[in-house]
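FYI - complex with FNR, inputs then prediction.
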Amino acid sequence: MSWFGNWYYVNEDQREGSCEKASVEMGEITNVTEYQAIAKEKLPKMVYDYYASGAEDQWTLAENRNAFSRILFRPRILIDVSKIDMTTTVLGFKISMPIMIAPTAMQKMAHPDGEYATARAASSAGTIMTLSSWATSSVEEVASTGPGIRFFQLYVYKDRNVVAQLVRRAERAGFKAIALTVDTPRLGRRESDIKNRFVLPPGLTLKNFEGLDLGKMDEVSRPTYLATPHPFVHAARSHAIFTVQANDSGLASYVAGQIDRTLSWKDVKWLQSITSMPILVKGVLTAEDARIAVQSGAAGIIVSNHGARQLDYVPSTIMALEEVLKSVLIPTPIELKELCKLPFASALESQSHCCLSLACLVSNEQSVFQVVKGAQGRVPVFLDGGVRRGTDVFKALALGAAGIFIGRPVVFSLAAEGEAGVKKVLQMLRDEFELTMALSGCRTLSEITRNHIVTEWDAPRGLPAPRL
Ligand code: FNR
């Protein structure tokens, strides 16, 4: 059975196995990673590869996972952990746990319910879903699934009118924040998409573009991408969105034509001028950019390498996290001067969970007093990339993240079991995270500190102090 009707048979020769192979026996799933193998069996090769692959050598793809295994625990014992509270607040919205859903494009390729199923699963888990602007369901359709806290992911196009329309649509549909993706001036080279000549399957469209005035976007794309109609050219509102070119993936063709390579920090300010939604900057990996993001008015930062799909050989996000957090939380000398005018007590009252962790983290370099003051009015930092276990969530929080997002586990579980699969992924991560908290002696998120973990880049512990 295929989700795509006829399209399945068109692509059958691309698959590794036969039709029967698609009916996978599912024993009891006991962890998130198991869904990947099921998705591989169930999905057409082109779709599975699109979801699974990273850029070029896929070094960062492996590193996103491997790096977590180089962080170990320092659990505390004999603490009453009979009650564990995982609730937290993100941009003022209370959620049941610090585990949220990252934007992943085109979810109806995984399951006919696509983004509807993800929205329902997120909502019933009491957490946030981020909808990709390249979703196969529109913001209105996702909103129609019922109440839920949802963010809208945005790429910025050359035609700002298109961007403004998308933002307005999301706002009207009740979305609460924009996740502005900033690591994609060009699409990374995913070689399997090139080999497979990736295309959006027939019958699916990028729904958020339907009904928009695509004005200049068409003019920009027509000479290059619409000149020669191709049997694999599909449409969003009868405008070609994906094409196949000899030496390129169809997706890259689209992005190359539409995404604005001139995007810069001033556009973050422009975006703030057209929406009252807070803006999370998604794709920050360095201290320098984190600082500029804060200065540019970002409401939050997502440390992300786009699931290792953009620049290969960037560090894993869990390795980059601490650099970003330190830079965001430690004030510059000028800021410090300003902050010192504030009464210490009020600074303490308003600190967030992630500020607390960082206060511990940097206590050797700056006084906790300074850092807590520096954190006043600053932004939460989130992470995505390679999170597959509750222990990974704990490690990210111990390093100072305010929460994490998951990408591939959602599309793989969607492919396997639709909405029930996504629900199960969220539940498994929740259960594992709760267990990790209990076994580490933490009852609330604010009790998770840097001292609960040790990383390979920490100073060796237990060595004699150097002689002075
Ligand atoms: C993505 N990601 C992504 N990011 C974004 O800003 N807009 C998008 O449309 C997409 N689409 C997308 C599709 C697929 C198939 C993947 C795997 C990823 C990146 C995504 O938001 C997130 O950064 C990563 O997926 C997180 O890594 P993990 O959890 O997949 O390892």
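The first helix runs from residue 6 to 10. Confidence is low (pLDDT under 50) at residues 1-23, 220-252, 344-377.
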